[in-house]
Amino acid sequence: EKLLAWLSPLEPQKRHQDIKNSRLENTGKWILQSDQFQEWIKGQSKSESNQVLGCYGEPGVGKTVIASIVIDYISANLIRQRTSDVYLYCDYRDRREQNLVHIIGSFVKQLVLQFISSGTRLPQSIHDH
User: Model-level pTM?
Assistant: First the structure.
């Protein structure tokens, strides 16, 4: 617990759960069926610029909800042994907490949590710090 708190105060999993709980059933499912998403998820994009799936728009149009749907899809369908997923919801209203150190720490924290949930113990040298 101390290690996780030290890594970052950001809690993307809690934020994700809150967003997920606020979604209406079948909201945004269209994104998962779109040709652009299917090409991206299968790694079949012919353009280097399509290696990143972008979602942009004005505040309040649903980007966060769409991102949460994609995160759920990846978590449920693409996680294999020796693969991890990390994410962060950025919010312009929380610029102070969302600095580079906290963001990178959040990614490391998520990897540590996934490592622990796999049943593997962290090395003692990590606990000692």
Answer: 0.80
